[in-house]
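Dataset card, provenance and construction

Sequences and ligand SMILES were collected as paired inputs. For each pair, a complete structure of the chain with the small molecule in place was predicted and serialized as structure tokens. The example below shows a pair involving LXEULUCI. Curators did not alter the output after generation; any descriptive sentences attached to a record were derived from the structure itself.
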Amino acid sequence: MFIEPNITGERRGWIEVICGSMFSGKTEELIRRLKRARIANLKVEIFKPTADTRYDDVKIVSHNTNSVHSTPIDNSQKLLLLAQNVDVVGIDEAQFFDSEIANVCDELAFRGVRVIVAGLDMDFQGNPFGQMPFLLAKADYITKLHAICVQCGNIANYSYRKIPNEDQVMLGEKDVYEPRCRHCYKMDGAVQ
Ligand SMILES: Nc1ncnc2c1ncn2[C@@H]1O[C@H](COP(=O)(O)OP(=O)(O)O)[C@@H](O)[C@H]1O
Ligand SMILES: Cc1cn([C@H]2C[C@H](O)[C@@H](COP(=O)(O)O)O2)c(=O)[nH]c1=O
Ligand SMILES: [Zn+2]
């Protein structure tokens, strides 16, 4: 479990990235860390991309219906304006943000903000998703989570798409995706 660094005195910023497959618990872990920051009386702001309308237009919602209020934004630069005088910034579904998201998070961290980012490291084809590789490169702390493979019960690293659609972006839940381990992901031809 991630334990917050114990920093006293001068405010210091950093970037935490929470990654993994769908259903691995990224949103739950993001919510857990943000709630703890609020318990510590820190000023917290939470953002998600406007593209993510799956469960709710405004809230961040985990697959087990845990939720927190967030601000949807269509451009990562808006974080620099909206996150002024904030101690902690939470960002969900980071894979959907534009090419500046990693630089924006870096700038926030240099300003002294604790930035907690959650996102899919791989798309359904097992390729790096969006700007996640850049966020992972700039992160001070990385947590990689795993779901349970619905086929065999081992730990799952992949998000298997059950529907024949080649677009990288396709919003969905259990109707479209299932978490699978490497072996079960390969079994159904997801790897050539
Ligand atoms: N196959 C699975 N493996 C693990 N968790 C699952 C699975 N199917 C459903 N869940 C539920 O999903 C929750 C995690 O949801 P969430 O935090 O939204 O994940 P993520 O953001 O990584 O997609 C788990 O606590 C569990 O209740
Ligand atoms: C693998 C994969 C996923 N997506 C979409 C599906 C969901 O709407 C989100 C992931 O949400 P979660 O919080 O991680 O469960 O991303 C996609 O568009 N393309 C993909 O390849
Ligand atoms: Zn499996």
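Derived descriptions for this record:
The chain has five helices and twelve strands.
The first strand starts at residue 14 and ends at 20.
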